[in-house]
Amino acid sequence: MRRRRSGIGISLVTAAVLVGTSACGGGGSDKAGGDDAKASGTPRASASASASPTKPAGPPMLLETITPQTGTTVGVAMPISVIFTNSVAAKARATVEKHMQVSASQPVAGAWHWFGDRRADWRPQNYWPSGTKVKIDVDMKGVSNGNGRYGVRSYTHSFTIGDDVRADVSVTGHTMKVTRNGKPVRTLSINAGSAQYPTWNGTMAVIDKQEKVHMTSCSVGISCDKGSPNYYDLTLPWDVHLTQSGTYVHYSTGDPNPGSGSARGSHGCVHLSLSDAKWFYGQVKQGDPITITGSPRAKASADNGYASFNLPWDQWLVGSASGQQTTATL
Fold first, then answer.
1. Stretch 254-262: mean pLDDT, rounded?
2. Cα separation of 31 and 6, whole Å?
């Protein structure tokens, strides 16, 4: 199954649960916008420092989202993602980046990368070391976005990198190997996408997870015809969200015993048995890397959720205005 979401941002002030229907499959947009991850399981960012704002020289430049939420524990592949309410001109991005300082308890080399003109993500060159304490200070007071707007506030988020939990999915081998801190934990049987609806390849950090998700084929343009063999309208349990375009690891009632002996293929998601899906749901957290290989499909684009490690480091730096940097000491 596949469920389509609208983007990956997280509101700075309030929390809400995304309601409505979605689906799992191979179609739909692969780009992430600024208002996704509003389902339970993905924390929302909060403005932790907003001292008396100075009078702006023009309309205010505000932040729509900062991810991860302050106080959370996330996985080793989690980027810091900042989304602005209005576009930031190319000429202003180097200055804006310099006012978004990343500090860590262990020095880490990393860089910002712009996806369009509103979203900037910071990722380390390699995965975060487990146990690292991280802080992002976004001080936009008086900073111009190059389009006539000026920042009026500052924000601080602190989070922790938790255990190094990874899952490696072999589409052709019908397996998922789960490790924790480098040690094998379990190997699970899986089914992935069909030839018609193949699964994305590449590494995707977990966006969020939900105990139940309502998935429909119509919501992603697969089929709205109830008589079609590809039509579905289901609420399915133990859903781990991998891409904004709708890739999940979950249980499907239409594929209850996945593995090499089953001829069933999904609409782009990774299927587990009911017991394995519940177990896996309990193991992973936002930012844990799930790597899929063996599919005929390309790698998910780096902004399709949190798939930043699908870009080689040299290509990541191309999208940075200020280049590689080492974190400040926390």
1. 83
2. 9
3-state DSSP assignment of residue 98: helix
Q: How far apart are CA 274 and CA 178, in angstroms?
A: 17
Q: Is 106 in contact with 161 (CB distance < 8 Å)?
A: no
Q: What one-letter code names the amino acid at 91?
A: K
Spatial distance between the Cα atoms of 305 and 244, rounded to a whole number of angstroms: 5
pLDDT band for position 258 (50/70/90)?
very high
- Tens of pLDDT, residues 136-167: 999 999 999 999 999 999 999 999 999 999 99
Helix (H) / strand (E) element for 136: namely strand 133-139
**What backbone torsions phi and psi does residue 19 show, to the nearest 5 degrees?**
-120, 160
281 phi/psi in degrees, rounded to 5: -55, -40
CB 204 within 8 A of CB 325: no
Residue 216, SS3 per DSSP: strand
Q: CB–CB of 176/168 below 8 Å? A: yes
Give the whole-angstrom CA distance, residue 146 versus residue 123: 24
Bridging pattern class, strands 60-61 and 150-151: parallel
pLDDT, residue 17, reads: 27
